[in-house]
Write a structure and sequence with these properties.
binds zinc ion; 10 helices; alpha/beta; two-stranded antiparallel ribbon
Length: 235
């Protein structure tokens, strides 16, 4: 479980496969997708690649309710926050966990993103810089399986799944969206889009893990988190 090394896109955190990414001047390089589509978030940072021990740890928390796994995941999330912090303005930043649909929340008993975010405050996220607020966003429905969908179709599929419950808290604020895994980025992009529409000045994304291009064979880039969660909900 080591942090992501080598050149990554300075916006979405995807691994850069171009040789330019290894010249040491990769700090401001963007992947082709971000150059073309400009995500609604300023920067997404993940602690590690969604594979191996890190993936197992996240599964322990989410699917086997081993809450003690949240401690180490929180420490990793705190490192993602530290990576984002140079981009924060002077005002207090809001940390907003990606919410679960209420049926899923009842099933699992907790929102893993919120639990990991809370743990991160015990491991270095400074309370005088960041405030956790899990009431700002609401998930209005479960999303359909994203399997086999194009990027455009995934975006359409997720549209309307989230709502900003308390827009007055968001206006003019910088926000860090927190999620356990960044898979295709569709979920956090949609959350960032509606937060920006509600007046957020800037949105960042901090996750514990991220699927990376070079891991594509192992990391199910399309048949990812959201698809499996939908199946779990259906079954
Ligand atoms: Zn990118």
């Amino acid at each position: 479980m080591r942090p992501i090394a080598g050149g990554v896109c300075c916006v979405c955190g995807e691994r850069l496969l171009s040789p330019f990414s290894f010249t040491g001047e990769h700090a401001a390089l963007q992947c082709a997708l971000c150059r073309r589509l400009q995500p609604p978030y300023a920067k997404a940072t993940a602690y590690g690649s969604y594979e191996g021990g890190l993936r197992e740890l996240i599964h322990l928390l989410k699917y086997e309710q081993v809450l003690s796994a949240a401690g180490v995941l929180g420490r990793m999330l705190a490192e993602a926050f530290a990576d984002l912090e140079p981009g924060f303005g002077a005002a207090q930043v809001l940390a907003v966990p990606v919410p679960l649909y209420r049926r899923k929340l009842r099933q699992r008993g907790f929102n893993q993103s919120e639990v990991i975010a809370r743990a991160a405050f015990k491991h270095g996220v400074a309370r005088h810089r960041v405030t956790l607020d899990a009431t700002i966003l609401e998930r209005r429905r479960e999303t359909q399986s994203q399997t086999g969908l194009t990027r455009h179709q995934r975006r359409e599929n997720i549209r309307g799944a989230f709502a900003v419950v308390e827009p007055h808290k968001v206006a003019g604020r910088e926000i860090v969206l927190v999620d356990d895994v960044f898979t295709t980025g569709t979920t956090v992009s949609e959350c960032a889009r509606i937060l920006r529409r509600a007046g957020a000045s800037k949105v960042f994304v901090a996750t514990v893990a991220r699927t990376l291009k070079a891991d594509a064979n192992r990391a199910e880039p399309e048949f990812g988190e959201e698809a499996r969660m939908t199946m779990a909900a259906a079954g």
